[in-house]
Amino acid sequence: MHERTRGYAYLTAAMALVGTTVVASKVTAAAIPPLTATAARFALALPCFLLLMWWTRTPWPRVGPRDAALLLAQALAGSIGYTTLLMLGMRHTSATDAGVILGTLPVVAALCAAVLLKERLSGALLATIGLVAGGLLVLAPPGAGAAPETGGMLGNALVLGAVVCEALFILLNRALRVEVAPLALSTLMTAIGLAGALAGAWWEPAATWSLLAPAGAAVAYYALVPTVAGFLLWYAGARLVSAAEAAVFTAVAPVSALLAAMLVLHEQPQLRQLAGIGCVLAAILMLARQPARAAVS
């Protein structure tokens, strides 16, 4: 297989796994408090990352106080904030709606960079932001109810908050002065996320579940497949293609989420959701055509 084709296959598989996290989060959120579930996810993923670091002889980064503070903030946003808000949101919205919102990540990251880092908003970027805004608006049109299973405004807002947390993770990574190897970064984020989630989970009600229950199985899947396997696939593919090409494959995530919601949760997408996903996919493709930096975590 040609090197570039192999890269495309890796990236497609990685983003397909990312899309399934909304279904795993929905199954988990039905039975397990969010911080407890987050802690369980990282507790399962951390030994895998540590083993990979030992196997690949990846060194731990040496960072100063400033970068250490940035790494801590990254973990709070990208590890704890993203997972917790996604699981909270899945209690109030459908997996299909959440998948559409998840697909806005590259555009949200570009918008956050413009607001926080004062990067210039080009005409093309404004157009992509408009497309994403249109996609989000059709998910919750004026007068829509907030029914728990039909895309309530609260659930969609929480999922969007999760996407903002992940966008902040990307921006904070760009601010590091010391380059951290991807595997070492993922291991650090998992370890810090585990410590923070355990501290918060202490105050949550006890979860009544076992590893044989659907919620426990969903946590194990989230930890081992999208988290560990998704990481390996993404960085294996990203090494074989350009950053702009890699950005295009983020469009696979919302499509994967929609298909997983149909197959696993038996959700039937409505016309407004298909319109929303169309807007998001168009925005991602437009953004990928710009000669800008692309970063995905």
From TrEMBL:
Belongs to the EamA transporter family. One of its GO terms (cellular component) is membrane. Residues 6-139, 154-287 form the EamA domain. It is a multi-pass membrane protein. Gene3D superfamilies: 1.10.3730.20. The keyword Transmembrane helix applies. Keywords: Membrane, Transmembrane, Transmembrane helix. It is found in: Membrane. This is DMT family transporter. It holds the Pfam family EamA. It comes from the Bacteria. Signal peptide: none annotated. The chain crosses the membrane at residues 39-56, 68-88, 100-117, 124-141, 153-171, 183-203, 209-234, 246-265, 271-288. PANTHER family: EAMA DOMAIN-CONTAINING PROTEIN, INNER MEMBRANE TRANSPORTER.
